[in-house]
Input
Amino acid sequence: MNEIIDDFIAYITDVRKYSVHTADAYRTDLEDFCRFYSNFAGTELTIEDFARADTITFRSWLADRQKRGLAFKSTARALSSLRGFYKYLAKYKHIKNDAIGIVSSPKIPKKLSKALDASDVADMRGAIASLEADAPWIAARDWALVTLLFGCGLRISEALSLTNADVAPHPKILRIVGKGSKERVVPVLPAVYSAIDKYVAVRPFGNAPTDELFRSVRGLPMSARMAEKVIEKLRYYLQLPDYVTPHALRHTFATALLADGADLRSLQELLGHSSLSTTQLYTKVNMSEIMNIYEHCHPRANEEN
Output
C-alpha cells in the first residue's frame, strides 16, 4: 500500500501544491487507516480492498482512534484525509467507494481558553523585567508583544507579521491579514504604541521599514515558537495554569470588550472570525471576572503604561 500512498502524496504536493507539512499529515492519517484496516480484515491489503471497505470498516476505525485517546479534531482531520484519498482513487485509479461519503465526521467539542485573572496580567510586566534583567531590550520586546496581543486581540502569527512600517506612523487602525488571507482593521490603543516605542528605542537591530517588528536575540524575525516560549517562561515564573498561552491574551481582550458592551458582530470583525458561532462562545464566560480584568488590567483602563 505504500506505493499507492506515495502516488497520492506526490499528487497533492506536485499538482495540488500542498505544503510538506500538510502532505506529512495526510501520510500519517492514511498509514494509520491502512494499519487498522489490515488488522481489521486480517490480511495484507491490496488496492481492491479500498473499494470493498464499508461503513462498518470506517466507523470501526473512528471508534478505534477514540479508544486510543486521539483528539476529536485529529480524527476529524484524518477522516478528511481519507476522503481526499478516495476522491483521488476514484479519479485516477478507477476505484470507487460510496461508503466513505456516508460516514459522518466526529463532532469536535467547542472549547474556549480561559481569560487571565487581572492580577496575573498585572504581574506579567514585573515578571518580564525580572526574567530579562540582563537584557533590557528583550524585556521591552516581550512586554510590547504581550501588550499588542492583549490590547489588539491579535493572533500570534498576525502580531509577528507586522513590520516597522506598519506601526511607525502610529495609525489609529492596523490592517491585519488573518486566516484565509482575510483582511480586517483593528484599532490600536495608545498604551500599545507606548510599549512598542519603548521597545523600538532600545532594539539593537531590525530597524529597516520592511523589517519585521519583533526580532530574536540573533536579529532574525521572531518565530511563533519563540513567542510561545516567552509566555511559557512567564507562566512558569508566576506559577500560572497551563491555559495561559498567547491565545489566552487574545481571549482576554475579547471577553473584556464583550463585557464592556461590544456587540457580537463587531467583536467578530475585530477577531477575524469567519463564523459568528465562534465568537458566540465568548458569551459563556463569567461576566464579573471579565469586568474585573477590563477595569484593572486592559490598556484602555490605564493609557499611561
